[in-house]
Write a structure and sequence with these properties.
The protein has nine helices and 13 strands. The chain has helices spanning 39-49, 64-75, 118-127, 142-155, 185-192, 199-211, 250-263, 268-282, 295-304; strands at residues 2-6, 10-16, 31-37, 54-61, 83-86, 92-98, 104-109, 131-136, 158-161, 180-181, 216-220, 226-230, 233-237. The radius of gyration is 19 Å and the shape is globular.
Amino acid sequence: MTMIVLGSINLDLVAIAPYLPVAGETLLGEEFLQLPGGKGANQAVALARLGIPTQMVGRVGADGFGAELIKNLQLSGVQTDSIFVDETVSSGVAMITVDHAGENQIVVIPGANGHVNQEDITRLSQLLPGSSGLLLQLEIPIPTVIAAAQAARTAGVKVILDPAPAPANLPDELYPLVDVITPNAVEAGRLVGFPVDGVESASRAATVLLQRGVKCAIVKLGAHGVFCAQGEENFFINAFPVNTVDTVAAGDAFNGALAAAFYQGLSLHQAVVWGAAAGALAATQRGAQTSLPDRLMFDTFLEEQGIGDRG
């Protein structure tokens, strides 16, 4: 059995500069970084580094970036046979400028990610009978996400949706196809139409999401913890205290560990603890995929927290 991730595969082109340039300004930068990213690829790497057999489904362009992105996934242990190399478009890239204060400017060119379509769903459908879960995000076309969730529902496979980036109006037909939805506070607020800034509002948001048809709603509140609601089972978990350096991909680490726990047959409560632990660990390191913990680091952290490998 495997876990499957359908989603975006990007290359992040990062420039470090003393400040962010204004329109028309040429500014000398200090450092250039070329880092693999994309929420789909991040979550696939998060799973694979925790020792879970993982298949990535998505698209890259027939360019040097695409070859590099596939190679990086393979080095992390992700199975890449179902990534399509699209010769009609470039690979997805994000051009990022970061200043000394940590502020940034980002331009994302979806490239091949914007072309993920029914052909990819056909390849996905061939993998579903041998899988125990499907992870989805919203950096590929939403109609494709809906088709993937429908295919997974037909195959009896658990669907975990990270609704990021969250649109103002997520189609109503998607919610009943989702087993677990995992928005952060900002995303939850956008989905439900009111601010989510604490446990009480997270509980209200989760209730709305359940009413729309999802089976389980998990609202990530960053350093304030995680609220989870599933039917009669509602609970809150405090965040793990860590020295936060960079929260990029912390949400992807959360989803990867959550799915890993489900794969290993752990309970919902244990799975949310795993997600919170992985998210906390990712926040202690810079970068996206470079911050995702491996299994040894993860198990050691759980033991240090007095949790043990069963959550």
